[in-house]
Input
Amino acid sequence: MIQCEKCSAPIDPGAVNIQTFSLCPHCRAMIRTDVFPAAVRPEKQKDRDQALVVADDAGCYYHPSKKAVAACASCGRFLCSLCDIDMDGTHICFPCMALEKEKNQLAGLETHRVLYDSLALRISILPLISLVFIWATCITAPVAIYFTFKHWKSKGSVVPRGRRWRAVAALVLSCAQIVAWAGLIMRMVHGPFT
Output
């Protein structure tokens, strides 16, 4: 049921999605109601019946009208495909997963991931921020190159974000820093190039 924001009175479905403001019939406030068409469309009987469980099938503990596809390995509750969390072949429900996560008993649950490409880029850029720390590039450049090559094939972010450009930028910047240090050392040893 769609209600007026001011007085919580029901709004006539004919005043919904009309692209103009109208008066609430109860409090006379100017309102405009835009909703998804499915919110005001009457539910079809056959759509509702498809989600119901057949009498011989088990229903989900959390969604009784959905067919159970697995049982939780921890508590034994029946779960539908929406509630079932497959942890390497072990089926578990969300409350049990949260409880076992608190106890640190879930093997294989990845709660964080180190993004080595971003780390390498930060390591290569950090000493360049201030001229006071520019000397640190002789240490941070090899470390950034190490992280780039060591973790080139490591898992990146769960969210796609184009991780390769960060690794390549860290590699190029670190190599440039090493070349600059080599040039500086050569100049100090051999004198100015003529």
About this structure: Residues 164-190 form the longest helix (27 residues).
